[in-house]
User: What shape does this take?
Amino acid sequence: MAKRIDVSGLTAYYGSHKAIEDISMTVEPRSVTAFIGPSGCGKSTFLRTLNRMHEVTSGGRVEGKVLLDDEDLYGQGIDPVSVRREVGMVFQRPNPFPTMSIFDNVAAGLRLNGSYKKSELTDIVEKSLKGANLWNEVKDRLNKPGSGLSGGQQQRLCIARAIAVEPKVLLMDEPCSALDPISTLAIEDLIGELKERFTIVIVTHNMQQAARVSDRTAFFNLAAVGQPGKLIEIDETERIFSNPSVQATEDYISGRFG
Amino acid sequence: MDTQIKDAPPPSPQPTVAEQKRAARGATRPGDRIFLGLSRGSGILLLVIMAAIAVFLTYRASIAISKDEANFFTAFEWNTQLIPPKFGIAVLAFGTIVSSIIAMALAVPIAVAIALFLTHYAPRRLRGPIAYVIDLLAAVPSIVYGLWGALILVPHMNGLYGWLDDYFGWTGIFSWQQGAPRSMLTVGILLAIMILPIITNVSREVFRQVPQMHEEAALALGATRWEVIRMAVIPFGRSGVISASMLGLGRALGETMAVATVLSPSFDIQASLLDPGGGTFAQNIASKFGEASELGRDALIASGLVLFVITLLVNGAARMIIARRKEYSGANA
Amino acid sequence: MSTAATVSTLKGARLPKWSPYAIAAGSVALGVGISFAADLHSSIQWALIAGLLFVLGTYGIAARVEGRRQAKDRVATSLVWVAFLLAVVPLVSLVWSTVARGVKVLDFYFLTHSMGLVSDDEPGGGIYHAILGSLEQVALATLIAAPIGVLTAIYLVEYGRGRLAKAVTFFVDVMTGIPSIVAGLFILSIMLMFDMEPFGFAGSLALAILMMPVVVRSTEEMLKLVPNELREASLALGIPKWRTILKVVIPTSIGGITTGIMLAVARIAGETAPVLLLVWGNSLINANPFEGAQQSLPLYIYQQYANSAGAGAAYDRAWAASLTLIAFVMILNLVARGIARWKAPKTGR
Assistant: This one.
């Protein structure tokens, strides 16, 4: 089910400002790839180009190719709506729909994509909540609003909502930055389980987190403020953290800047 | 507050915390006392005015109603010169409600659509200017709408009226006896045009406050633009739109000049919305006032009191919805 | 749904970019055609038919080519556009007809003469007396309402705690919703009590009642924008509270307060109903707002329309007066917004 991502020569703009320049990389299916780098280096922007969320912001546009199993997301006749259905996303701050119950939140994506019987819906919601390690905590209050949960639970609810539609790829934009350490640990464990089924790309500010959860790590950097962000290197996580091939990566990881 | 005081550079005569607190209450110095007195007095004056409005209107209304030989709430006539005088507000209440319902039915969906247009559909560089123009339109005086309605809109309604009569005449409420289209439907349409800017403005504000993250959540699930609006924007903005509509309704209920210029009034109830006749509280006051005797004026004041109470209820409901919405969104922050 | 993975799941059949325009053009053409064939004369009908065809056409074509979800999305888009255009038409017509018809008799003579010796159905005359009356009534109303409104807002923001403040807040809201004719009736009931004849200042009182809550609300908003740190810094310097308010809080927000007052002035300048009840109208110049009937601009428009039995000259005067009134209100609005932008507190968030 999980798909491979092949990016080549990708440049993204906000209006006339070039945010990232000429990025190429491959993300293997059923693996976790972490993006690290200093603030403003364009790692979140790059993540958002992978499901065409970048073009939602005003003036956002993209050059280059993003192949999802050999199909270009930016090719002719591609529907961004279908792209986002295949490439799910979890955001920095937990964002369950405040007016919907826990059940409806998880079912929200399914209801968009056609008609399910009530029993089917119930099954998928249960499966997704179990997949997000949230089922035991919420099974007795599925009809309560999702906004009543704790921050960590809300974030897992968002993950359940994202995996309910069975995407091929799951993008996570600093999913733990608004959470306490225990909730963070829960999410990290969950990421380890989810990679059995999905291709996962995660942006993180926390280098220990990258080291803990990812198989491969990509380091992004920018020459100066206002300059476009670039991919410095991508490699096995172990190598990046022990013996990176570029000096800037080593400097960043050892805390010499950023 | 205390930390702020500690952080501030030490003034030469350092005030104690107790002095600070007294100063904050504004009771120590004559200047403070006078200033507090003036501002509190203004607030109290406002309350006194509100009370005075209620008291005076009720007093004059009671004079009128005590002389009324008909039932003030159910009588279908307005004859204050008769001996004994007979008058009642049934026709006015009916007309006011009907015209306002038409206005709301037309204005609310269109206003919500325009608000969505301005927040989600219009090309970005047009959004600001269009919103600005709508702001200005909200400031156009109602008498100008009235003049336009009477001289431009009314002649244009003939075609629409004939059409409605042809196809929906059988319903009764859309039958037309070829009279001038100065009827409740035209009044309702004009009122809708008048309250459109205010409902649009408030709804637009509400829609703009929908957190970006909720819309992105819907987008990331693979929602089309319309689905984003249905999942994230409308549920979040619903109560705001309701209160915006109530504010518009308050305007429509009390609108005087636009109705007075467009409607061709009569003191009975028309079965059809297309036939001229009927009246509203405010229109009736404006039209009857010129020739009214003293009792006639008191009777008009009595009808104004009813209008006052109705608008108070509507506005009160709108405010309560807004207040509840604040608590609700606070709990979610 | 996605099990047929061999076929592309990302591609959906899409209508070309120009299709909404094509459908729009087609519906307009068809709408006009139908209207001609059915011999419909009203442009309102043409527009309604074209709009309906556009929405239905969009749904039909999109549903066939792109599927139901996309079709719904396109219908929503087309409905929103149609609603916007539907609303624009009357509003443009209003502005256009006021300007086009208003300029006919609007000249220096019109602005500087009254209606003395000119009967309602013959040409000539002007609005000098109405402008004079309006300016006096509005100025007096502002003199009453602005200080009371600003002081009340200061009370609510700087001092207001407890039950009195809550009551004031609530009744300010209630007052905002008072129909203008009710404010007029209130003053009228007082005048009946003392057997008074109509005069300009009575109208000012009613206008002041309508103006106060607007001033309170806008001033309150502005005072709340003044950061608390400023107040605390001043208090900590040992400056008494009332001087803090006068020297720190008010100057910081003066731009916004002025804007609010000007917008409120613009609003009451167009009020007709209370003036009709209390000031009565006058075709002659009466410069004394404290005695005798006066004229006002909105009332003049109404009387030219209502008392003239359809005379073209009176309608022309009504349009010209409307144009003058709109120009006055718009200029006030634009200047007010200009001030708001120019004086916006630099510390504001």
Notes: DSSP finds 13 helices and no strands in chain C. Residues 231 and 248 of chain C are 7 Å apart (CA to CA).
